[in-house]
Specification:
Shape: globular
Structural class: alpha/beta
Largest sheet: 10 strands, mixed
Helix content: 25-40%
Length: 407
């Protein structure tokens, strides 16, 4: 970081059409002083969107990717649009972005084991696609979203998708907030172009709904962009632990006053994004929740899970005890038992154990399993059951999983 204000451009897209998005991207890049001029002929450019879900609206706009890829290609660069899993190849199968970029899945690329410099969470070597490490210019193209555990996600959180396939699980095992910052130290973004034409709000990633916001933002600094878009969405930057950590590590400013916002003013673009629920009140008597010592991420995850499964918990005829947070002795365990978060590891055989800090959305399957519901083979890999139950589970057909499902 230099002493100069970090610039973020903020523009409006009149509609979600290709022409309107292209014009908004052009304006956003102009306001930044045309950062793609740093791209030279023959450079390898990688554009990383949020594009791993098939649900309409729950992904970076293909029109935004087209606008960015076309401009990078015009500089003579070799352009890639890349994301984990093959879903992006399905979504972009017939998209015009193919005229300017190769669309690839990180799952198909060779991996290189690297040590993250200065890591505080991902301190062991991790496997990263070669394309991520070898590119000359790296562009993030995130979609602005709420998040049930970390409150809000955008440019910085987008880099969790650098890890191929199911290996993103390591981020939650190590501690997601600091791991986000570690990944941003490993692969700094030369440019971020944020898609807030449609944003995701509510109980995401467990549920969530789309909302039209009609905004595009860009910056050479991912932290500055996230601080700005948090302000636009009515979220304080100091509420986001990964932004506080990134600022402490010198990756960018955390105060909006230290950011040069160009184009549309924050107050003119502002809207109040609907956040994920945070109420830990059980839906009925007989559902016992003990999370007083849990970290904020695990508490938020648990609140979101209770909201998601409310109707199922109301129908469940028995008692259930859910425990999260460090404690020497467990409270009274009544009925089905679910243990949430890494702090519960020493008590892991006392019930269904959901590891992670916080767990991932898919791990709500462990709560459904504890209620006696059936789960898929992939979902069964997302939680641990007491040893005596594990033997029975193997006998029921969960033992023969592929390597990919176990990762």
């Amino acid at each position: 970081m230099t002493g100069d204000l970090t610039a973020v451009s903020l523009t409006r897209a009149a509609t979600a059409t290709e022409e309107a998005v292209d014009a908004a991207v052009e304006e956003a890049l102009d306001l930044l002083g045309r950062p793609l001029q740093d791209v030279g002929k023959g450079d390898r450019v990688v554009i990383k969107p949020n594009m791993f879900q098939r649900k309409p609206g729950f992904r970076t706009s293909p029109e935004l990717l087209l606008a960015v890829a076309a401009r990078a290609s015009a500089r003579g660069a070799e352009v890639y649009v890349a994301e984990r899993t093959h879903v992006l190849k399905e979504i972009l199968h017939r998209a015009p972005v193919h005229r300017y970029a190769q669309v690839v899945s990180f799952d198909d690329r060779p991996l290189r084991v690297v040590q993250v410099p200065g890591a505080t969470s991902l301190r062991v070597p991790i496997a990263v696609p070669d394309l991520v490490l070898d590119c000359d210019f790296f562009i993030g193209a995130p979609q602005l979203r709420t998040h049930s555990s970390v409150v809000l996600t955008n440019a910085m959180k987008n880099l969790v998708g650098l890890l191929p396939g199911f290996t993103t699980r390591i981020v939650h095992m190590a501690g997601v907030e600091e791991a986000i910052v570690d990944l941003n130290q490993l692969r700094p973004q030369h440019l971020v172009v944020c898609d807030a034409t449609t944003v995701i709000e509510g109980n995401y990633p467990m549920e969530g709904t789309t909302r039209e916001a009609g905004l595009i933002a860009a910056s050479r600094n991912a932290v500055a962009l996230d601080v700005t878009m948090a302000a636009v969405a009515g979220v304080g930057s100091w509420e986001l632990a990964y932004l506080r950590d990134a600022n402490a590590r010198g990756l960018g400013p955390i105060d909006l006053a230290d950011i040069d916002v160009r184009g549309t003013a924050v107050e003119d673009a502002a809207f109040k994004i609907r956040r994920a629920p945070v109420d830990l009140t059980p839906p009925r008597e007989g559902i016992h929740v003990h999370a007083e010592t849990a970290c904020e991420d695990c508490r938020r995850w648990l609140a979101a899970a209770l909201h998601l499964l409310r109707d199922e918990l109301l129908r469940f005829p028995g008692e259930m005890t859910i425990v999260s947070g460090p404690m020497e002795r467990l409270p009274a365990l009544r009925g089905a038992v679910v243990l949430v978060g890494n702090a519960m590891y020493e008590h892991r055989d006392a019930g269904v154990y959901l590891e992670g800090c916080p767990p991932r959305a898919i791990q709500t399957a462990g709560l459904r399993y504890a209620m006696g519901q059936s789960v898929t083979e992939q979902e069964a890999t997302q939680f641990r059951v007491p040893r005596q139950e594990a033997s029975a589970q193997d006998a029921d057909g969960f033992a023969g999983l592929s390597l990919e499902e176990w990762i």
